[in-house]
Design brief:
Blueprint: H1 2-10, H2 14-37, H3 47-56, H4 66-109, H5 112-115, H6 118-149, H7 152-163, H8 175-214
Membrane topology: Multi-pass membrane protein
Protein name: MALD3 protein
Subcellular location: Membrane
């Protein structure tokens, strides 16, 4: 009936499109955060690079002697533990950012804004709050990672691997972490756009509900 058509029509609106983009960005943030964490022990950079190095050099730590191999493993594990809380926090944030637009899509498909237009103002407020809080969250994420890369553990780990000619263990932000930061900025802009669209839709619904009274 008309209700089902109205529900389907929502998925073709600009607000629904922005929410779907937010879902995609959240998924990518989750992926980049998990890549940033790496794995415990055995070349804990990008997991893909770890496997490449593993097969290229015949096994993890194959280029090290006994004591050096143990030291490399210890440094890998300590480096992993330093990054783990940051990656977990980023993944939790990404998970919340994934659930939020999914809930809003469901609410809109169920026509809650049509029956309760004030919901759109609540939605707008939540979007603005999340967009604003994204800025300090990104600062904390990048600042914490840079602190790990500037630590003595990372510096010693970098020097140890470079002494054996291994590349890819530099103490600097790698592609996945930079991508997570950029995706966070894009998500903040999408939230602000969604906030504006929510206000626009509130005005539209309010005008449509007033028309029968004017007649």
């Amino acid at each position: 009936g008309s209700l089902e058509r109205r529900r389907c029509l929502y998925l073709h609106t600009g607000r629904a499109f922005c929410q779907m983009v937010e879902v995609l960005l959240a998924v990518l943030i989750l992926v980049c955060s998990s890549v940033s964490c790496g794995s415990a022990g055995g070349y804990t950079g990008l997991p893909a690079l770890g496997s490449i190095y593993y097969y290229q050099y015949g096994g993890a730590y194959s280029g090290f002697g006994g004591a050096e191999g143990e030291r490399a493993q210890q440094l890998d594990q300590r480096f992993y533990l330093l990054k783990l809380p940051i990656a977990r926090a980023a993944m939790v944030v990404g998970g919340c950012l994934l659930v939020f637009p999914c809930v809003l899509i469901l609410v809109s498909v169920l026509q809650v804004p049509w029956h309760f237009p004030a919901w759109l103002l609540i939605e707008c407020t939540l979007y603005i709050a999340i967009a604003v809080s994204t800025v300090p969250a990104l600062y904390y994420f990048l600042h914490s990672l840079l602190s790990v890369y500037n630590s003595s553990v990372c510096k010693e780990r970098e020097q140890l691997y470079q002494s054996k000619g291994y590349q890819g263990f530099w103490c600097s932000l790698h592609g996945a972490e930079i991508a997570a930061g950029l995706l966070g900025c894009m998500a903040a802009m999408a939230y602000l756009l969604s906030a504006g669209l929510a206000v626009r839709d509130y005005r539209t619904i309010h005008e449509q509900k007033q028309k029968p009274l004017q007649l």
